[in-house]
Design a protein that fits this description.
about 350 residues; mainly beta; five-stranded antiparallel sheet; about 40% strand; disordered N terminus
């Protein structure tokens, strides 16, 4: 069994001598997390307790080897600390004598009451004793020891690649990470928070450039589909594309501007005429889907929940980009789906 980890405490503080421990009422309440189902969950639970100033709970995540000589010393170690953010990396494990030991890479960013932040990084060792051989009281996964040291890296870059024999994390997808940052920069206030947390659908489109010479390799465009917001009957998405020439860029969708007139100016009545009066672009794709076989993105915007009035577009991938090839409009609120094609570049004149 290899347990080559420093035995120093991992609980670091921004303490100032003589200060008293923060009370829970001094800071906004952080989310309550108490999860012992995995080694990394225990680490996140530890810092949930610290953020909420529930130091008895934090103390309880340790086994017989505690992070300080006594509980009062442990609490005083967090005088002046306001919040702590935590990240965990790939876990390695090894078994020995009825236990499993987990090595967890950890990075934290501790912020004091003045708003000054410091970054620390290192490894925790956690232990899970075989439940079948335990006698009451049962002990779940606990922190055995750990060591974090000050880091000069930014918080996003400070996480150790591995601990012990753990595998290094996979290389980051640079294009995907750039697309995520672009989405957050542009739509963070417009997208639903729960959808922002989801990974996008990703597609690889291989094609021959129209100007390619014989023997030139195929080119590749990558497509990232982010679900952004949902309403009663429409879901809006945002797409980003990436290639080796243009880098990462947001896909824009061309739509015709329509002049729609109704008999007696009654929008609930019969449609009198529809005319295209121009074109515009939008970054939103409503109720969209990408067909990887046809290389098309389709949209379907319901004007009301019944879907009897709507507009829909078909965008075909050609030579490195998507272009509008068909647009249908159903302007009648008649309880039936009877769209009319107003743009058709699929059919020859």
């Amino acid at each position: 069994m290899r347990r080559a980890l420093l035995a120093a405490t991992a609980l670091l503080s921004l303490a100032t001598t003589g200060q008293t421990a923060l009370a829970a009422s001094d800071t906004p309440e952080a989310p309550y997390v108490d999860d012992r189902s995995s080694a990394d969950a225990v680490v996140r639970s530890l810092y949930s307790a610290i953020n909420r100033h529930e130091f008895a709970r934090a103390w309880g995540y340790y086994g017989d080897t505690k992070p300080a000589k006594d509980f009062d010393t442990f609490v005083k170690g967090y005088d002046g600390t306001d919040t702590v953010e935590v990240k965990t990396g790939p876990i390695s494990d090894e078994g020995a004598a009825g236990s499993i030991y987990y090595n967890v890479p950890v990075a934290i960013q501790a912020t004091d009451k003045k708003g000054e932040a410091k970054v620390f990084a290192g490894c925790y060792t956690l232990r899970q004793v075989n439940a079948q051989i335990q006698a009451p009281p049962f002990q779940p996964i606990f922190i055995d020891k750990g060591a974090l040291k000050p880091s000069t890296a930014d918080f996003d870059e400070a996480l150790p690649p591995s601990c012990g024999d753990g595998p290094p994390p996979p290389k980051k997808d640079a294009a995907l990470e750039q697309a995520k940052k672009a989405l957050l920069a542009t739509y963070a206030d417009q997208c639903d928070k729960n959808l922002l947390a989801n990974e996008p659908e990703t597609f690889s489109i291989k094609y021959r450039d129209k100007d390619a010479a014989a023997g030139d390799p195929d080119r590749e465009t990558r497509l990232f589909h982010f679900a952004c917001s949902t309403a009663a009957y429409n879901e809006n998405s945002v797409y980003y594309m990436s290639d080796d020439v243009s880098g990462v860029r947001q896909l824009q969708f061309t739509e015709p501007e329509m002049d729609i007139r109704y008999v007696n100016n009654d929008s609930e009545g019969k449609v009198e005429s529809m005319h295209i009066v121009g074109f515009r672009t939008t970054g939103w794709a409503t109720n969209s889907d990408y067909d990887k076989d046809a290389h098309t993105i389709t949209t379907f915007n319901k004007w009301r929940g019944a879907g009897d009035a709507s507009s829909s577009g078909t965008y075909l991938f050609r030579n490195g980009d998507f272009s509008l090839v068909q647009y249908d409009v159903d302007a009648s609120y008649d309880g039936e789906q009877n769209p009319e094609t107003v743009v058709d570049y699929n059919t020859a004149p």
